[in-house]
Amino acid sequence: GLTRRYTFNVTMATVTRLCLTKSIPTVNGQFPGPKISVREGDRLVVNVHNNINNNVTFHWHGVRQLRSGWADGPAYITQCPIRPGQSYVYSFRIVGQRGTLWWHAHFSWLRATLHGPMVILPPLGVPYPFPKPYREVPLMLGEWFNADPEAVIKQALQTGGGPNVSDAYTFNGFPGPTYNCSAKSTYKLKVKPGRTYMLRLINAALNDELFFAVANHTLTVVQADASYVKPFTANTLVISPGQTMDVLLTAAASTSSSAFAIAVAPYTNTVGTFDNTTAIAVLEYSPQRPSMLRNLPAPSLPLYNDTNAVTNFSSKFRSLDNARYPAQVPMTVDRHFFFTVGLGADPCQSPINGTCQGPNNTRFAASINNVSFIMPKTSLLQAHYQRMYKGVLMANFPTAPVRKFNYTGTPPNNTFVTHGTRVVPLAFNTTVEVVLQDTSIQGAESHPLHLHGYDFYVVGTGFGNYDANNDTAKYNLVDPVKRNTISVPTAGWVAIRFIADNPGVWIMHCHLDVHLSWGLSMAWLVNDGPLPNQKLPPPPADIPKCS
Ligand code: C2O
Asked: What residues does the Plastocyanin-like domain cover (predicted)?
């Protein structure tokens, strides 16, 4: 492979959206940030200079980082933040992955504006397992806040309540005609009749799972999270934050209109407020008749809480599983974990004017197995490398919930959680199964769980409480989809499997940033294997120090 070099200058830049001009953190002055292009097998070297008045780190979402955990990026997990004025070089190889991934800041809520696509082409001369598209177009779905997202989460954490929601959804940064003074700020995808396009879709929104559809056009899904899937068609897609999806769209040979709406709207079951708006981009046929741009044919999207539509869509994913790209599902399990995933509440410790804005005068918290994750003050990976756990790590993370109840029924009154920085130690090469069970505390809500350092197979899913006796028999161990982010369904569960063959400390968390901020997170500590090429190498010399 080649070495591909990029420079990321993190700077403030002025942008105007929804009639508001403001200064936002950007990479190289661009919003969304620059596209990274590599081939499978290449080394990627990204030189980051932090020129803003805040800490920053970068995460290469979905990249496995085999023995390159120092480049993974989550703040206080694999590195301390790059402080203002400092630099850090991320260097890692892309091994055994191809398709669309993305990069984003992994400190506080900075990823709201610090994100961009990562396109991984197959090795030179290796074709796609589907007809080569005429053109490929990265399409990042995002969320725009008129307020400073850093101020939004700060306020929420101080008052204990839910954060203010975003003001618009965006396509490659453009909100489009359904929002105030944004008609001229519309993303247009120009297509030629009869040609096939591959949309490299990325959900970069902070807090919303999204429905996606194109009026009068059927989409063929060929890839998810940089793994090939058995192609299937759909009129409406569902993409959770963190997930990527490559879809083929064939422009019709002749059409009734010269332009069609591409629409995005939220899917949620939250009991709180959410950004319930629909964003529009335009699929524009060339040659184009401009008069047709009024009354765009619009797709009909499911209702915001249509869980059936979501279940129907997610049930279609299967690994491609052919001779060249076989599914390699672990058939036996060394260690089984049962994790409850959900919201909870905390006693109000520092009330603002005597109250906390969470439910019943509490503050919101979120947890896995009743433990709400606390970010340490130093990097866990560094602590692990130096075997200096004291004062950093607490007891091991529980392998099953501390309090058992009917997870999908009416939750008990006492929904308080404990807090801590706790990890699960794993011996090298352990085969792990995790059943992630959604809980109904504060209302059932799906949680897009993202695992760093690994892809996992989604071997089972269902509604209600997971039942080991019956549900295990229904697992798909033949061609389950391989992903790095999976939404734990509303009032249901999902079972994943992976082999812990990548030494390091790997965070697993909800990719709704507000839930991550509330502690819906844990980490796996995967020990070195016996062979030299199974060990984590020493940290790079320029790894940022914690103050
Ligand atoms: Cu895309 Cu830990 O994040």
From this structure: 10-122, 136-287, 401-528
